[in-house]
Amino acid sequence: MILVGFSCLAMGQNSARVQELEKQRKEALAEIKRTSALLDQTQATTKDYLRRLNLLSQQILSRKKVISLLGQEINAINEQMADMAKQIDRLETELKEKQQNYGKSVRSMYKRHSSQDKLLFILSADNFAQSLRRLRYLREYANWQKQQALGIVEKQAEITKKQNELAKTKAEKQSLLANREEEQKKLQLEEADQQKEVKELNKKKSLLQAQLRQKQKQAQQLDRMIEQQIAKEIAEAEAKARAERERLAKANKGKSPEAERKADVKGGYAMTKVERALSANFSGNRGQLPYPVSGSHTIVGRFGEQQHQELKYVRTNNNGIDIQTTPGADARAVFNGEVTRIFMVPGYNNSVIIRHGNYLTVYSNLSQVYVKAGDKVSTRQAIGKIFSDPEDNNTTILHFQLWKERTKLNPASWLAGE
Predict the structure, then answer these.
(1) Which of 128, 354, 372, 395 matches a 20 to 30 Å C-alpha distance to 24?
(2) Residue predicted with more confidence, 186 or 114
(3) Are strands 376-377 and 321-325 parallel, antiparallel or unpaired?
(4) Which of 242, 277, 265, 249 lies closest to 356 in space, CA to CA?
């Protein structure tokens, strides 16, 4: 019984593992579908020469993930099939044993099948009590035989069920093997396309480098604007905190009770009690914040300094992430907060800064802005329309940044998968 329970537990764990792997594979396939749609929009004539190659590289990574997950699913199914085969062997052994026991009992009853034999068996007892015991024994023996017969039927049904499950699992394995072969063919085609793109970009090396220098210059200008705004807000908050301390000291005859406004770190943003609660709430939602765009989307620019895998002379530095979405999509606030500034920078169009306690989120490349400085916004509220470049096949990309005090953070690790 313990062995049966352990076997069932192992089967359940295997089944759950297969389901989880299948879920991950479907998510990776959905990512490939989104990337493919963006690749269709991003023609080879795009003015951002790197974007198509980056999308293609991302699609290849997703495809490799799908192939890897298919391999893991096949391995898990192999384990599942091995467990099923063991269970079928065990059930067949139990069935054989039951059939042998039942056969012996039937042969024994056949030898003394007559009711006269049974009657003599009862009447030959030494006393009445023994007669009753013998009568009860015969009844129990007859019931045992019926149970044995039912047990044989049940075991046969259980074996048939397990054999059907095994056949179904084998069919699933064959389907997964076919899927893996198909995905590998797609991967080969994508890798060939990637090499063509690399070859073309290498011919445009000087143009590409000039483009990257211009983008870097624009990014530095955006960075300076954000830093200036953060410094301004910190100074204003500190001035309010100082005024509050002076007022409290005056009201308490020289004593200085703790002011409501205070910063978490020296030189940081002095927060009110409400802002501290908001900041803690924001921090507690790390990895669960919604994406800052409506509609389908994919990250096409990663945070931090990146050495391009295919183009060794290309090195980029991104203070946030770039999220490509569909034309007409809106930028959305990732959390409750207050709009503190709206400004323009060449290459990034309109930008909106939202403060969430001592955290800030920045939404850049907006063609329209729906909010104004001082507005309170809520999670998922539309704050502006993302710019679609008419000279670049209406490519629609939001540049999104996340800061804590004066430190840039990787936004991707704060967002939830959708």
Answers:
(1) 395
(2) 186
(3) unpaired
(4) 277
Name, in order, each residue with C-beta under 8 angstroms of 51's C-beta and a sequence gap of 6 or more.
Answer: 42, 300, 324, 395
Instruction: Count Cα atoms within 13 angstroms, Cβ side, for 416.
Output: 10
DSSP string, 64-131: HHHHHHHHHHHHHHHHHHHHHHHHHHHHHHHHHHHHHHHHHHHHHHHHT-SHHHHHHHHHTSSSHHHH
**Average pLDDT of the chain, as a whole number:** 82
CA separation for the pair 343, 352 (Å, rounded): 7
Per mean pLDDT, which range of 131-135, 224-228, 314-318 is the poorest?
131-135
Residues 106-131 pLDDT 10s: 666 655 555 556 556 556 666 777 66
d(CA 105, CA 115): 16
Q: How far apart are CA 233 and CA 360, in angstroms?
A: 11
Measured between alpha carbons, how far apart are the two ends of the chain, in Å?
A: 44
In angstroms, the CA 184 to CA 189 distance is 9
Place of tokens 């992430």: 321
Alpha helix segments (H runs only) across 252-352 = 273-284
Of 113-122, 133-142, 395-404, give the range with the top mean pLDDT.
Answer: 395-404
pLDDT in tens, 23-43: 888 877 777 777 777 766 665
Match 């149970």 to its residue by tokens.
147
Using an 8 Å Cβ cutoff, are 370 and 363 in contact? no
CA angle 355, 356, 358 (to 5 degrees): 85
Poorest-pLDDT segment among 241-250, 260-269, 329-338: 241-250
pLDDT at residue 6, as a whole number = 46
Strand partners, 324: 298, 397
Report the alpha-carbon distance of residue 369 to residue 351 in Å, rounded: 8
For the segment 273-308, what is each residue's pLDDT rounded down to a tens digit? 999 999 999 999 999 999 999 988 888 888 988 776
Compute and round to an integer the Cα radius of gyration of the chain.
Answer: 36
Amino acid at the residue 245: R
Cβ–Cβ under 8 Å, residues 21 and 69: yes
Structure tokens at 309: 């895998």
Q: How many CB atoms lie within 10 A of CB 327?
A: 16
- 250 vs 183, higher pLDDT: 183
Q: CA distances (Å), 252 to each of 11, 121, 243, 255, 272, in order?
A: 72, 109, 14, 5, 20
Distance, in Å, from the CA atom of 360 to the CA atom of 173, rounded to the nearest integer, reads 49
**pLDDT of residue 149 exceeding 80:** no
